[in-house]
Automatic annotation (TrEMBL):
Its main location: endoplasmic reticulum. The lineage of its organism: Eukaryota, Fungi, Dikarya, Basidiomycota, Agaricomycotina. This is Endoplasmic oxidoreductin-1. The keyword Oxidoreductase applies. May function both as a monomer and a homodimer. One of its GO terms (molecular function) is FAD binding. It comes from Psilocybe cyanescens. PANTHER family: ERO1-LIKE PROTEIN, ERO1-RELATED. Residues 1-24 form the signal peptide. The keyword Signal applies.
Length: 496
């Protein structure tokens, strides 16, 4: 009782200090872009524990899905518990990957010398025991890490698709916004004018970034004491101060649940006897079945609204190419542990999108297509879903830490974060942007510059291609013209 009163008083003082009204229905999940009190809306939010997609009031619908944020909150405890058991099973614990491929985009001159970055494989093959290499703070940062994320966000160039959509027989109302935020957060009337696939792509990438940031903050190393602990300030700075980032973690979780749900019959028939004992294999299937049941209930992602129309195949190929490049960018990460988890999660998301956007029910039938997925894809899909579920679980921890703070301390954090955010906003309009301040936000703006650049580049490439085609056409015609000998001694090369 006393703690509840203390909490109420603290919130009242905090709201009064900033002139904020108290509204019981004021939730960060109910808004597309949260501009007022973002930190408080994220950390004061109380997750719903009892609801389903079929009977809940949709106070926070998720775009392109048929469900809401509250549903994920209501099932996540159970989902996290079952996934925690599942990823401990031998089949899902070991991941095979070539971790030391050459970076295809730039000289591999960046590396992490921190011992936390290093990992070792379990044998001279390339298997890694994921229990021994948890995803957490490693100290990997600076220009090398910023370059990786910059490249990832710049893979949002959908110039060719937009050019085709605008010039096709039935041109769609597609335009190039000035900032990436405008791509994601339009008024309802304007939202339809944007490329839905582009917004989905960005949400997938942004959700991955936010989830990774949450893990780093949740298992943060105190370099003075050597202890691992949740770092609330880190979480507020990287995620809570920008609620849309947390929204994208929910989004990716539903996307992954939908993929697991569609893959249910295939996963149920999959051979898990490659490792462990028969008892392990039996327990693996039992736990997996519980996850599949949750996925069927909560994985309400409507993939049918994407990649439609006459340009669907072009758009889908670009979507795949962009994401394939993202997975290749992981080879440029200078931290071994970061590279491993980057590869796992990009593979997991790529597998999910493959299941949703490329495969029909016939292809997913285990009797007709028993070799549909490689073992590494199945392991990556399940572990990636676990990482996102664990991120949402970690948010609960941060909310508890926030609730335990006194009003003065909370007010100080809010002021510091607002001051830092204002500085970042000012940096957007500076000619010399300091990427070390807050790369996530800067990348959004830079991505749209890349989009515009891609459009111009494509137009230039098309022009060059048409010119080259003209040269080829002239060369073909010249083959059928009379030779100099046939045309007489007066003919010159200039006549051809």
């Amino acid at each position: 009782m006393h703690s509840s009163i203390h909490r109420a008083l603290k919130l009242a003082l905090l709201f009064h200090a900033f002139g904020w009204p108290v509204n019981a229905n004021d939730s960060f999940l109910a808004e597309t872009l949260v501009r007022k009190r973002p930190i408080q809306k994220v950390l004061d939010h109380q997750p719903i524990k009892h609801t389903t997609c079929h009977n809940s009031i949709l106070t926070g619908p998720i775009e392109t899905t048929m469900c809401d944020y509250e549903t994920i909150e209501s099932v996540n405890d159970e989902l996290f518990g079952n996934l925690s058991e599942l990823v401990e099973k031998p089949f899902f614990r070991y991941f095979q990957v070539d971790l030391y491929r050459e970076c295809p985009f730039w000289p591999d001159d960046g590396s992490c010398n921190n011992p936390g970055c290093a990992i070792t494989s379990v044998d001279e093959g390339e298997y890694f025991d994921l229990r021994l290499v948890p995803e957490r703070y490693t100290g990997y940062s600076g220009k090398d890490a910023q370059r990786v994320w910059k490249s990832i966000y710049e893979e949002n160039c959908f110039g060719l698709s937009e050019l085709n959509l605008m010039t096709g027989k039935s041109p769609a109302p597609v335009s190039l916004p000035d900032t990436m935020i405008e791509v994601l957060h339009e008024d309802e009337q304007e939202s339809a004018a944007q490329c839905l696939e582009k917004r989905v792509y960005y949400k997938v990438i942004s959700g991955l970034h936010a989830s990774i940031s949450t893990h780093i903050c949740h298992e943060y190393l105190n370099q003075t004491t050597g202890e691992w602990h949740p770092n609330l300030n880190c979480f507020i700075s990287r995620v809570a101060s920008h609620p849309e980032r947390l929204q994208y973690i929910y989004f990716d979780t539903i996307l992954l649940l939908r993929a697991v749900s569609r893959l249910g019959p295939y996963l149920s028939a999959f051979d898990y006897c490659s490792t462990g004992t028969h008892e392990d294999d039996k327990e693996t299937l039992q736990t997996l079945t519980k996850v599949l049941d949750i996925a069927k209930d909560a994985g309400a992602f409507d993939e049918s609204i994407l990649f439609r129309g006459e340009n669907a195949n072009i758009l889908k190929e670009e979507f795949k190419t962009h994401f394939r490049n993202v997975t290749r960018i992981m080879d440029c990460v200078g931290c071994d542990k970061c590279r491993l988890w980057g590869k796992i999660q990009t593979t997991g998301l790529a597998t999910a999108m493959k299941i949703l956007f490329e495969l029909d029910e016939t292809a997913l039938d285990p009797r007709a297509n028993s070799d549909l997925l490689q073992r590494s894809e199945v392991v990556a899909l399940v572990n990636t879903l676990f990482r996102f579920s664990e991120s949402l679980k970690a948010v609960d921890t941060f909310r508890k830490l926030w609730q335990e703070m006194d009003a003065a301390e909370a007010e100080n954090i809010v002021k510091q974060t607002e001051k830092a955010t204002a500085a970042h906003a000012q940096a957007f309009h500076s000619a010399n942007v300091d990427y070390s301040r807050n790369y996530f936000d800067v990348a959004c703006e830079q991505s749209m510059s890349a989009l515009r650049h891609c459009k111009h580049s494509i137009e230039e490439n098309v022009t060059q291609a048409m010119t080259a085609l003209g040269h080829v056409f002239n060369a073909v015609l010249s083959a059928f013209r009379p030779s100099r000998k046939e045309r007489g001694p007066g003919a010159t090369y200039g006549d051809l």
